[in-house]
Every structure is written in C-alpha cells, then in structure tokens.
Amino acid sequence: MALTTFASEAIADFRTVGAVAPSSRYLAQAMLGPLPLERARVVVELGPGTGVMTEALLEVLPRNCHLLAFEINSRFASYLRENVPDSRLTVVEASAELIRQEVQKRGYQQVDAVVSSLALGLMPDRQRREFLDGLVSILRDGVLTQFQYLHCLQMKDRQIRRFDLARLLRQYFGSVRQRIIWRNLPPAFVFACRGPRSMAREAS
After folding, report:
1. CA nearest neighbour of 164 among 178, 154, 179
2. Alpha-carbon dihedral of residues 52, 154, 136, 59, nearest 10 degrees?
3. Alpha-carbon distance 63 to 94, whole Å?
4. Are strands 143-149 and 188-196 parallel, antiparallel or unpaired?
5. How is the chain split into domains, by residue range?
6. Percent of the chain with pLDDT over 90
7. d(CA 147, CA 161)
8. Under 8 Å CB-to-CB from 5, ≥6 apart: which residues?
9. Exposure string over 42-52, b if 16+ CB within 10 A, otherwise e
10. 92-140 pLDDT tens trace
C-alpha cells in the first residue's frame, strides 16, 4: 500500500514529492548514521512521504524524544497518522520554510537533528533560502542530513539544469561531507552537515 500511495502521489505532483519511489533501507541507514540520536530530545524530519525514514528514526530515538515530521502532501500526512502510531511523532502539515515558526510554536527553541528528503533543487530559490535560514537558526550544534539523487536536477528560469547542492550547503554549514548510496532507486548522494552558520555567506 505504501508503494501504491507513493507512486500515485509522485505521478500527480512530482515537483512536491520529488521522487519516483520510497527511500531504500540503505539510504535510510546512511541518513541516520551521522545523527546524534542517542540523547536527542527534538528531531525534525522533512518530507517523510510514506514513512520509511520515520519508522527507522522511531526505532532508535529515545522514549522521551519528540519527532516533528513536516509533510505538505495531505495524503502522505494522513497515511503517516494512520500507519505510524507512535506518541513521539507529530505530523506537521506545513511548508519547509516555516520550520522555525512551527518548531517554536510547539515550545522548542532548538532541535538536535534534521533529516531532510526535500527536493531542494525543485524549490524556488527564495523558498529554499528561507528554509535554510530558518533551519540553521534552530539547529545550532545539531546535524543535518540531506539526500539528493545522483542526477542533481534544479528548476531555474523554467528550465531543468544540474544543481550544485554541495556548494549551497557549504554556505550554511562549516562542514559538509558526502557519500554515494548506490543501493537506492535512483542512486543518491547523502550530505552530512555540521557547524551551522547564522546566515549564508554568499549568493548562489
């Protein structure tokens, strides 16, 4: 059912979903590996879809940790609420650039880790930068993991081009490391980002 739900939404709105299939367990493991989850109190997941990484996170998060999963696709959000019954999980139906407001609205001033499956290359530049500005303001000493498919596409001036995500992330983080996960459809880069900066240091 999860695959059917994911496929139908991907066909209906690829720009929002940004993927052709749910993430593999190998990609999920690579995304969670760099994160300081053992003592985490607040973790954010962006773009959980049908919950592959959500469930992987809940398997390792402490009992008193809160997981805020941002999902703007209403069908995915409903699917998560119905199929991932865990009191630590809160599904937030809000866009990524509202991350700071939504986190603080729930009484948290900072988060320990962020797992992002967002298709950043398909976002408008202003929305992408508003998201990253908000993210670094609450991440502080935490870690972001972000994946991007190997083809690295970007929508710009109504044309699809290659997107240099590593360059963008280095404007917001002091350390950005990447690796390739081949056992995923399609293969993907995983970026582990540490040392968040207060603002971007240069224009893209």
Report:
1. 154
2. 10
3. 25
4. antiparallel
5. 2-196
6. 70
7. 18
8. 50, 75, 76, 79
9. bbbbbbbbbbb
10. 999 999 999 999 999 999 999 999 999 998 888 999 999 999 999 999 8
CATH-assigned architecture of domain 2-196: 3-Layer(aba) Sandwich (3.40)
Residue that has been written with the tokens 């290659």 in this structure: 162
What tokens appear for 28 in the block? 């999920």
Q: List CB contacts of 126: < 8 A, sequence separation 6 or more.
A: none
- Strand partners of residue 69: 45, 91
Contacts of 15 (CB under 8 A, 6+ apart): 119, 122, 155
Query: Which single residue is written with the structure tokens 């609205």?
Result: 105
Please state, in angstroms and as integers, the Cα–Cα distance from residue 82 to each residue in 29, 57, 76, 77, 112, following that order. 24, 17, 10, 9, 26
